[in-house]
UniProtKB/TrEMBL annotation:
It comes from Methylobacter tundripaludum. InterPro entries: Aldolase_TIM, EpmB, Lys_aminomutase/Glu_NH3_mut, rSAM, rSAM_sf. Its cofactor is [4Fe-4S] cluster; pyridoxal 5'-phosphate. This is L-lysine 2,3-aminomutase. CDD domains: Radical_SAM (cd01335). It catalyses: L-lysine = D-beta-lysine. Residues 105-318 form the Radical SAM core domain.
Length: 336
């Protein structure tokens, strides 16, 4: 399938410009996808709760005219989001209160989550931080200095995980400054970056970014977030190759989502396509129960049955670990 000229031109632009041109309303997205909003269960109230945001590089992977497309389901605001499912709350993981006080979340031994920004390039409707006041997470210089000092002062920390939001939304200059400070901390063995940008805005993976990251004496691990093989376009593949060729180890985490990837064949195809492009399947998360996301839930029983089917079909290293987040636990909890 050949791309229209306007899209080819869009993809030549700087990533920040591509981001600025992301879809931000239902009508524009539907028009682009040859869908009529009148035929879909869309909800403007859901948009008010949590805005629509979809970069063209992701929208271009959605099948035109298909209201049930698994990628569309991840980003389209629908009426189901307004329904209060029992057991779903605004802070399912119990992290958010802590995250406003400090940008360093130290829950597991040896590694900390360093929240650098609350923003993302895409608003996934199943996001566990969707109900959170994002502005409070913005990392000012003072908070950053305090956070770095806390990491420097605790020699038990061997790995810093840059997280968010999406840490790759920071400018190269901000990232460079951050990396420089982390690079000076002797007890750090690894820096890990948790980002969905290589998948949803592959233009972010520039040579300059890679140079910035690579200056680190520590090992660099990147955990991307991809839920369906259709998200892995030629541009995503190029971005993953560039990262991998520069010596960065790539893993993927997915969320098990009803109507998106709750099918063994789809999960197998995802693992195969990831690994075929240098990305190792890491985690398959059960949904965190954030308000507005109940319609995505796959039960633990179903999840177990699915992962057993995947295990029966693939080599062990292509089977992601099925896990769930449990407040107060010492690690992600294995379900299988
Ligand atoms: C998920 C998570 C991590 C990373 O866990 P790994 O099992 O090492 O991938 C670290 N800190 C926090 C607070 C987390 O939620």
């Amino acid at each position: 399938m050949s791309e229209p000229q306007s899209e080819i031109q869009h993809f030549t632009k700087h990533w920040q410009q591509q981001l600025a041109e992301a879809f931000n309303n239902i009508d524009d997205l539907c028009r682009y996808l040859d869908l009529s909003p009148d035929d879909l269960p869309v909800s403007t109230a859901a948009v008010e709760d949590f805005p629509l945001r979809v970069p063209l590089s992701f929208a271009a992977c959605i099948e035109k005219g298909n209201p049930h497309d698994p990628l569309l389901r991840q980003v389209l605001p629908i009426k189901d989001e307004l329904f209060a499912y029992p057991g779903f709350s605004n802070d399912p993981v119990g992290d958010l209160a802590a995250a406003t006080r400090t940008s360093v979340l130290h829950k597991y031994h040896g590694r900390v989550l360093f929240i650098n920004t609350g923003s993302c390039a895409i608003n996934c409707r199943y996001c566990f931080r969707r109900n959170f006041p994002y502005a409070d997470l913005q990392l000012g210089k003072q908070k950053e200095t305090t956070a770095i000092q806390a990491i420097r002062d605790d020699a038990s920390i061997s790995e810093v995980i840059l997280s968010g939001g999406d840490p790759l939304l920071l400018s190269d200059a901000r990232l460079a400054r951050l990396m420089q400070q982390l690079n000076g901390i002797k007890h750090l063995k690894r820096i890990r970056i948790h980002s969905r940008l290589p998948i949803v805005l592959p233009a972010r993976i520039t040579d300059e970014l890679i140079d910035t990251i690579r200056q680190s004496p520590q090992q660099i691990v990147m955990v991307v977030h991809c839920n369906h093989a259709n998200e892995i376009s030629a541009r995503v593949i190029a971005a993953c190759n560039a990262l991998k060729n520069s010596g960065i180890t790539l893993f993927n985490q997915s969320v098990l989502l009803k109507g998106v990837n709750d099918n063994a064949e789809i999960l197998c195809e995802l693992s195969e396509r990831l690994f075929g492009n240098g990305v190792i399947p890491y985690y398959l998360h059960l949904l965190d129960k954030a308000s507005g996301t109940g319609h995505f839930e796959v039960s633990e029983t179903e999840a177990l049955a699915l992962i057993k089917q995947v295990q029966a079909a693939l080599p062990g290293y292509l089977v992601p670990k099925l896990v769930k987040e449990q407040a107060g636990a010492a690690s992600k909890q294995p379900v299988f």
